[in-house]
Amino acid sequence: MGHQVVGAGLASFPAGVTIAVQLYTDMHVAVHLHAADDGLRYASLSTNIRHAPLADDEFAFSSGLVPQDMCQALLHTGAFADTGRVIRSGYATFPIWRIADEQLIGQVVAMRVDAAAATKRRRKSH
After folding, report:
1. pLDDT at 8 over 60
2. What is the count of structural domains for the chain?
3. Whole-model pTM?
4. Helix/strand/coil for 72
5. Whole-number Å distance between alpha carbons of 90 and 55
């Protein structure tokens, strides 16, 4: 988690959130924010849309769950970039964001390698 982002309206000390990445079961990227002071989850930045045509470093951004000033603060860090594309799911439209931070990308790659190895081990044991 080492990326701290300060945004308005957060009631934590030190102010801000940290960024964490995980994987959904379909290997799409999951991005979460945690309060910087106690580590509790603040918000999930991503929504998993199965079969969405996303690159390995992209995710469907849950823009309605995060205050607009926090969205701008996240983009300002350089850790993320708005691709300008959107994806529709049901009645909602989700902007597609790309992870631009090499450390976060490295974490995602490592998780995918671990997940692939675990899948291979499970298949061998059956």
Report:
1. no
2. 1
3. 0.83
4. helix
5. 21
